[in-house]
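Action item from last week, closing it out:
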Amino acid sequence: MSRLITRIVALVFAVVTLAAITPLPSDERFVEPNSALQPVFRVERAMPPLVKAPPERIRFPVATRRTAALPEIGIAEQTPPSAEVVAPLPFIAGDGPPMRGTRIAQTGRLDVYVGLRTFTPEQIAAIAPRLEELLRGNEERFGFQLQQRVSIAFYRPSLAPSKDTRGIAYTEEGRAEVYYRPNEDIERALVVASHELAHHLQAQRYGDDAQKRADIILLEGLATWITGPPWLAKYGVARWKERARQIGDSGVPLRLLNAQRYGDNIAYELWASFVDFLIERDGMEKMHALYVSGRGREPGSADYQGIYGASLNELANEWRVWVRS
């Protein structure tokens, strides 16, 4: 029995061996099986990313009226800064009236001359632009611009019409003269020049007839008031009220009609303070009306009663209270 089992096993082994060495069919006879294996990896052709549509722009309603400007957020193109608009300086063409001496400079509205034995031509050339600046300051305070060119000259004091005269304005002729020695303070000479230019503003605003008959309190008081800060700076004060108080504290009585007995400067400063009081009290328009109401050079000749409803004495009493307030 054991021999039979051994023969059967041997036979099976032989059949298997013969099958192993039998040649496989060629590629031409190979048939693709009906069932395909499930792929482990899935490879797709590379595709460019989808182009997304641009987001819709958000539009804000345009305001028809804004109470406050809102800053815009964003990157603005760099542009050069716009040039600052500068108003042209006042200018009057032509020449001013000729004067003795040498014409050193012409500014926008002034012809500047110098004579002998006073400041040097170089000094006058250096201050010529400042004369124009002082004129502009006068115009701002007075509210009126020069309409015709003015010539101004610096001469030695011996040419002055009187011993104590430092400056004089010939308003009908369009010229002014300032009298100083070579070694004197040129800054004070500038203040005098500014005062004389103020007279030209008065004459050109009110007319020659009104200028000829202006009350001297207003003629000199208003011109000194127009000169303003450069004059006050000599005393270290900022207001005409303060300057009048200084004068009163020095022992000079605060009187308008007799002020000149203490010197022209004191009189001009007290009168400028009085003008300042009237302007503060009732404004510039009434001051203009009072100025043209003058009936002569005498102090008090203007129509104070008609313009202000009070006499000069009554207004002076109010002014003294104002100075001390």
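Closing note: The two ends are 156 Å apart (CA to CA).
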